[in-house]
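wait is this the right file?? whatever heres the structure
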């Protein structure tokens, strides 16, 4: 990036590290699936003799893009990706009750979608000791402590963040794959994406987690136990380089892990975590943030000794991430939002140059003007056999459609999401009308030759 942009980004993270009193902080900006800027402040070494940080003459150890930090709840969207892969394979449906795939619990009536979107009403934390600072138990041990009282709110009624829900989804993945959730994650996501420095425990160069005293510049080491059955809710460690690949995936650079439209569906709002105009929400495994006209997707994370955030604006393709080794202090999410804003303000992304694309010639006869009653719509052919239906006025119901074969397409956006678009043809094979969710679109308004619901007045249009 330009030197002025890089300095503005560096100054922002330097200010956050200093005012938030983080022992160290790393960050990056991601565009087009790649890191376009990264920076670090602070040091990895800390006092071991009680003499205070920075007092010795020895050379300090600075973090870099290959330094591992614990990313906490950013583990959750990785579990969600594994669940959506199972869905796309046909192994489960999101509306399936948990009992169908993980029998023998008191949570069997909750659906997979509710667990993914934190709308199950399930308790936020696991019964027993503070799980983030205690050695974890196995799944039978956790399941035995979950009873009917563990569901605190009406399932499907409202957003209620649940770490237990993702511990449960991790076990669901393990049952389907016949291996641990972590092995499934390595095989299906981490290795294909080249995320070889993301692991359940620190490996090689890593940051130590610290608590910073609120009223003195001293630190205390935090424990980092294995969370056992709760590990799918927050166990992973990662690096700037690896976490940038996650940011790119959320933005649509899926690397073949999932279809881009599946990831886009994960970014759709399933629940809102606010009372009036929503500013925070949740999709199917992704946190959503509404900020200065943007809707960003990704996730935040925290564990004792660590803070992390990774978000992207799918509309501009600009994302950012940040990690710090402190329990509290820096406003990590606010920092990430500011980095995205600074990057787009100083260097707005240029539109991708237009160029001709391969379009199935058979789709051309479907393009152009159609009418829903008297309202004109346009149909545009997209690559890969997709269609785009949108009002000629620019206002109203619009959707893209993915081909299903035999003159059928599935809606992907808005009002028509999940609905089937069908082509009605004349005896000569010419497209005569489109059928969509009981509506009939015709080349001319209310074409009397088409099967218009309710019929068309035989006297036709009149003054």
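ok assuming it is, sequence goes like this
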């Amino acid at each position: 990036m330009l030197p002025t942009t890089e300095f503005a980004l560096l100054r922002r993270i330097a200010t956050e590290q200093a005012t938030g009193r983080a022992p160290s902080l790393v960050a990056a900006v991601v565009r087009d699936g790649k890191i376009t800027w990264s920076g670090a402040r602070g040091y990895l070494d800390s006092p071991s003799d009680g003499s205070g940080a920075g007092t010795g003459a020895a050379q300090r150890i600075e973090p870099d893009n290959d330094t591992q930090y614990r990313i906490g709840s950013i583990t959750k969207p990785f579990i969600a990706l594994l669940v959506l892969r199972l869905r796309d394979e046909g192994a489960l449906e999101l509306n399936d009750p948990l009992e169908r795939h993980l029998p023998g619990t008191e949570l069997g009536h909750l659906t997979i979608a509710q667990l993914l979107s934190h709308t199950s009403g399930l308790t936020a934390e696991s019964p027993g000791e503070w799980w983030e600072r205690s050695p974890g138990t196995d799944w039978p041990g956790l399941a035995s402590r979950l009873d009917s009282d563990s569901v605190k709110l009406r399932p499907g009624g409202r957003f209620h963040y649940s770490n237990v829900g993702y511990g449960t989804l991790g076990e669901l993945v393990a049952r389907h794959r016949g291996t641990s959730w972590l092995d499934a994650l390595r095989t299906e996501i981490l290795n294909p994406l080249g995320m070889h420095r993301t692991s359940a425990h620190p490996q090689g160069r890593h940051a130590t987690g610290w608590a910073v005293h609120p009223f003195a510049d001293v630190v205390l080491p935090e424990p980092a136990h294995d969370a056992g059955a709760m590990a799918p809710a927050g166990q992973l460690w990662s690096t700037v380089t690896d976490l940038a690949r996650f940011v790119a995936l959320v933005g649509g650079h899926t690397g073949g892990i999932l279809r881009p439209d599946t990831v886009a569906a994960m970014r759709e709002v399933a629940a809102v975590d606010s009372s009036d105009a929503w500013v925070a929400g949740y999709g199917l495994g992704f946190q959503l943030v509404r900020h200065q006209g943007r809707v960003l997707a990704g996730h935040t994370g925290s564990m004792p000794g660590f803070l992390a955030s990774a978000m992207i604006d799918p509309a501009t393709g600009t994302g950012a991430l940040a990690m710090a080794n402190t329990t509290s202090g820096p406003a990590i999410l606010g920092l990430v939002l500011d980095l995205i804003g600074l990057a787009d303000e100083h260097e707005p992304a240029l539109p991708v140059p237009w160029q001709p694309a391969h379009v199935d010639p058979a789709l051309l006869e479907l393009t152009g003007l159609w009418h829903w009653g008297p309202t004109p719509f346009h149909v545009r052919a997209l690559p890969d056999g997709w269609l785009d239906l949108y009002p000629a006025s620019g206002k109203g119901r619009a959707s893209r459609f993915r081909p299903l074969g035999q003159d059928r397409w599935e809606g992907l956006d808005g009002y028509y999401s999940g609905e089937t678009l069908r082509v009605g043809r004349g005896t000569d094979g010419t497209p005569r009308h489109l059928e969509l969710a009981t509506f009939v679109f015709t080349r001319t308004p209310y074409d009397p030759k088409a099967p218009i619901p309710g019929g068309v007045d035989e006297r036709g249009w009149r003054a």
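The mean pLDDT is 94. so i think its the right one actually
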